[in-house]
Write a structure and sequence with these properties.
Rossmann fold, 2 domains, six-stranded parallel sheet, 6 strands
Length: 227
């Protein structure tokens, strides 16, 4: 999985655009745990492929996925409310940043590189996570659900982040953990690095030009190598 750190990025990035869940914070595993709790509470069994298909996408995109499995009458909004309730119950007792977050942000500060978040989560969720980890002031721009038309894997979230940073997408380095996120960033034309969380990289993602790293410590080394 480790990238050969003798390989530099195609060019020095002018900014870095981060995904959030599963990249900055160890939340994807918590969402999975919360899903199982909500499903057990309602007497449902949710197969792995249904959950995997929901990783990195907006709630509105997850609804059709769940209804395709449980039937059109499935009350997804009510189920998602229970899913979210279980998530925050778990997250409040086990908040955790992914390895290398602080070190990478400190390096970006040192190099004077701006940074943004491009996520499928709501602004309320983003602000809650950032505040819980003392990171509220560490990002220049936040792009979240409602700020763009089409969600990942469409390029819209990353294109909006580049627009708000005042840069062309190819000048930006995009960091992602999910398959749909890598597809989104690559479609936007950004240099793309994948730090996998719950889903392993595939040949398809590598063919999109994505470098694969172990964690954000290795992203920091890549950025420094191109400084």
């Amino acid at each position: 999985m480790d990238v050969d750190l003798r390989i530099c990025l195609p060019r020095r990035p002018s900014a870095v655009v981060f995904d959030m869940d599963g990249l900055l914070f160890d939340t994807e595993a918590l969402w999975q745990e919360a899903l199982l709790a909500a499903a057990a509470e309602a007497g449902h069994e949710v197969p792995a492929e249904v959950y995997d298909g929901s990783i990195g996408v907006r709630r509105s995109q997850s609804g059709p996925l769940f209804r395709s499995h449980f039937g059109e009458a499935f009350a997804f909004e009510a189920f998602h409310s229970d899913w979210r309730r279980h998530f925050w119950r778990i997250a409040e007792s086990r908040p955790a940043m992914k390895p290398g977050v602080l070190e990478l942000l400190e390096t970006l500060d040192l190099l004077g590189l701006p940074r943004a978040i491009a996520t499928s989560s709501s602004r309320e969720t983003v602000e809650r996570h950032l505040a819980a980890h003392g990171l509220t002031e560490r990002f220049d721009r936040i792009v979240c659900r409602g700020d763009y038309e089409a969600g990942k894997p469409a390029p819209d979230p990353f294109l909006k982040a580049a627009e708000r940073l005042g840069l062309a997408p190819p000048a930006c380095l995009a960091l992602e953990d999910s398959h749909v996120g890598v597809r989104s960033a690559a479609a936007a034309g950004m240099m793309t690095v994948m730090a996998p969380d719950l889903m392993a990289p595939t040949a398809e993602l590598r063919a999109l030009g994505a470098l694969v790293v172990r964690d954000l410590h290795q992203v920091r080394e890549l950025v420094l190598a191109c400084a």
